[in-house]
UniProtKB/TrEMBL annotation:
Domain of life: Bacteria
GO CC terms: cell division site; cytoplasmic side of plasma membrane
Family membership: Belongs to the FtsA/MreB family.
Subcellular location: Cell membrane
GN (gene name): ftsA
Keywords: Cell cycle, Cell division, Cell membrane, Membrane
Domain SHS2: 7-195
Protein name per Swiss-Prot or TrEMBL: Cell division protein FtsA
HAMAP family registered for this protein in UniProt: FtsA
Keyword Cell cycle on entry: yes
Length: 442
């Protein structure tokens, strides 16, 4: 198989680890070349708590993806979640030395880099700095200030913060599995890339990604990320409840949830019963589906209500902040029967299930278009995007070096190259910082 410009997304979840290899086809859609999936051991509520087990799970998923695609995996983009993630709002400004020159990308980089220097609580590190809107000389609500004149450039930022130790542990697992860490991205942001349309982001939408260990929330309005949060409950808690409530083992509880589970108790008749084989010669257990869905309902209501509190915290009830496109559910937990109806009932907002198929090429495997893979597809998109940026910068540098060779006497060209090399995206700079940090931590 020819070695094209392919990228890899690696979703380290609480229940499963997924590696997806893909590239962009000529229509700008993503062609999935191979996927690998393994049971995740050593991750609890989105945070690595057993390095050795996590490494072997990552290796399993990666090997499977390599076998599927016949390609070798080098660098990966990884998602981060977990209850240690928090987000805050911050505004900052820079004063430009010459207001007669137009604002360019370097000014924006300078402003963003300033935010990375914010003093955090001990043991915390900034993961993302996401500009919301800009102000130029007091003129507000500017989405794209590049090309405008102005002396004072100001912006509101959505800053995502996580624990240094958790980030380092993920880096450690990736490194020990024989891979390079390309980028770290917040999982709800990755899922949002995969399942939301631009219209929804403009109108206002809340993405709820129900995973095994955590439920991630990302809120968009006017095309900009407004709020992110990670709630430390997910599908696993529901399985736990079924296990306790019905006195059965976890494997059976998980199967019951997937096959017969429903989030709406009124749905089941009283006489619907499932018989579960007993352990080691014990009598089989009989469980009514009504009871099963009551157990599931109680826990799902709790999760949805917590998410709704976050949506209210963002200010959904204010007219200007109203989320017109409502809610999009994704992740493995979104496949629970009647969940959509329950969420609509609790929140009163329009709801749909989000499939990551919008960005995938038409002939993609059906399995990849399942909500289970939303985060992994989003991470793959992120990885392709980063590769594209690097590719463009490399090409520009090569072109300019050629110009340089031709015009050694022209000093102007030299400064030109310098400016391009500096214009790496903030994210690349941050990745380099993180890589150095991880190498020194060894």
């Amino acid at each position: 198989m020819e070695q094209g410009n392919y990228s890899v997304g690696l979703d380290i979840g609480t229940t499963k680890i997924v590696a997806i290899i893909g590239r962009e086809n000529e229509y700008g859609k993503i062609e999935v070349l191979g996927t690998g999936r393994s049971k995740s051991l050593g991750v609890h509520r989105g945070v690595v708590n057993n390095i050795t087990q996590t490494i072997s799970s990552i290796q399993q998923a990666v090997e499977q993806a390599e076998l599927n695609s016949g390609l070798k995996i080098g660098s990966v983009v990884v998602g981060i979640a977990g209850q240690h993630i928090r987000s805050l709002h911050h505004s900052d400004y820079i004063t430009r030395p010459n207001s007669e020159e137009v604002i360019d990308n370097e000014d924006l980089d300078k402003l963003c880099n300033q935010v990375y220097k914010l003093v955090m609580l001990p043991g915390e590190e900034i993961i993302h700095v996401l500009p919301q809107e800009y102000k130029v000389d007091g003129q507000s609500e500017i989405k794209e200030p590049v090309g405008m004149y102005g002396g004072r450039l100001e912006a509101n930022f959505h800053v995502v913060v996580g624990q240094v130790s958790s980030i380092k542990n993920i880096g450690r697992c990736i490194k020990s599995a024989g891979l390079d860490l390309g980028n770290i991205t917040l999982e709800p942001l990755a899922s949002a890339d995969a399942v939301l349309s631009q219209e929804e982001k403009e109108a206002g939408v809340a993405l709820i990604d129900i995973g095994g260990g955590t439920t991630d929330l990302a809120i968009f309005k006017d095309g900009i990320i407004r709020h992110t949060s990670v709630i430390p409950f997910g599908g696993n808690v529901i399985t736990e409840d079924i296990k306790e409530g019905c006195s059965i083992i976890e494997k059976q509880a998980e199967l019951l949830k997937i096959k017969f589970g429903s989030a709406w108790p009124g749905e089941n008749k009283d006489n619907e019963i499932v018989s579960i084989p007993g352990l080691r010669g014990r009598e089989p257990k009989e469980i009514t589906l009504k009871n099963l869905s009551k157990i599931i309902h109680a826990r799902v209501v709790e999760i949805v209500e917590q998410v709704y509190v976050e949506i209210k915290n963002y200010g959904h009830e204010e007219q200007k902040k109203k989320l017109i496109a409502g809610i999009v559910l994704t992740g493995g937990g979104s496949q629970l029967k009647h969940l959509k109806q329950l969420v609509e009932y609790i929140t009163g907002m329009d709801t749909r299930i989000g499939y990551p198929n919008e960005h995938l090429a038409g002939d993609s495997d059906e399995e990849v278009a399942s909500p289970l893979y939303a985060t992994a597809v989003g991470l793959l998109m992120n990885s392709l995007e980063a590769n594209k940026k690097n590719h463009v910068v490399d090409q520009e540098e090569m072109h300019e070096e050629e110009v340089l060779v031709g015009q050694e006497h022209d000093m102007g060209a030299k400064t030109n190259v310098a400016s391009h090399t500096e214009r790496k995206s903030i994210f690349d700079k941050w990745s380099e910082k993180l890589k150095d940090f991880l190498d020194n931590a060894e």
